[in-house]
Each structure stands twice: as structure tokens, then as C-alpha cells.
Amino acid sequence: MAEAAPERQPPFAPPGFPPQGFPPQGFPPHGFPPPRPDPIEVAGLLSAQEIALGIRADQIDVWRAFASAVVDFVAVDGPPPPPEQGSRPKPEPFGLPQAIASRAVEAGAKAKAVLDARTALLARLTPAQIERARKMDMPPPPPPGAGAFPEGPPPFAPPRP
Question: What's this model's pTM, rounded to 2 decimal places?
């Protein structure tokens, strides 16, 4: 009876490393969060959703307000431009936490705009459009896993008689 191969240990890693569940669930294998969505791609998806939902002329204003708020929310502002040579301002005390908090407040305002635009949009959509939007937001079903086929994956071809 053949013995199972031992679990492969990364080179130069202490026993038991990496810990169970590392990297955190929800992140790609390299451990970093996924990149933010590109605003142009988001705008394209919203444009396709507008057509799929059948947004009518009397709904276009609230739809565009919603789409603009979503695109503005996912758009990432770059770092501020560097100061001109020779005119470096004196650093403010606790300037970094203040800058981080200011960006968080700005992101919160953009998120609030998305929520307000969504509320206005839902008030103008028909029940059929809301149901279509609900189906568009559903994630795809997970691939069949071990629970789906306890005896192993199904054969690629039907068994021969």
C-alpha cells in the first residue's frame, strides 16, 4: 500500500508556516486585495445595464445621476501635485492623519451620493425593471465542489456498456 506524499513545505519556512487560513479569505493567492475597478469599465457596464433594464426617457435623468455617482465613487484621485521647487510649505503637525481622514470624508460623501441616487432611481423604476436589476446583481452560482459529487467528478463520456 503506497503511503501518501507528505504535504509540501515551502523552502526555508518553519514547520507549520503558513498558518491555517493564510492568506485571509477573499483575497487573491498573493495576499493583496484586488485592484479597484476601472471607472471606464464601470461606465461601460452601467451603459449595458441601462439598455438591459430598458431605461425610458422619463427615467434617464435619475439613471444618469446614479451612473455618474457610481463612476465618481470608483474613480481614484491621484496624489496631489508636488509643491513647486523652493516653495516647500512647512509640515503641519499631524498632517498625515489629517490628510487620510480628509480623503475618508470625501469617499464617504461620494458613497452617500451613490446611496441617494440609488434611492431616487428605485422610486422611478417599474417593478419589472427592479426585478431585472435584482437578477443582474446576483452572483453566478459556485462551481460544483466536493459536496456536489461525493464520488468524484462525473466522467467526461458516458460509460460504455
Answer: 0.61
Q: Kindly state whether residue 60 falls inside one of the protein's structural domains.
A: yes
In the chain, which stretches have pLDDT less than 50?
none
What are 123-150's pLDDT values in tens digits?
A: 999 999 999 999 888 766 666 555 565 6
Number of separate domains in the chain: 1
Q: Is residue 12 part of a domain?
A: no
pLDDT at 84: 73
Q: How many CB atoms are located within 10 Å of the residue 25 CB?
A: 6
* Residue 14 lies inside a defined structural domain of this protein: no
Q: What is the DSSP letter of 57?
A: G
Q: Which domain holds residue 49?
A: 39-77+100-134
Burial call 54-74: b when 16+ CB within 10 Å, e when fewer: ebeeebeebbebbbebbbebe
Does residue 2 sit within a domain? no
Residues shown for the chain: 161
- Residue 121 in contact with residue 49, Cβ under 8 Å? no
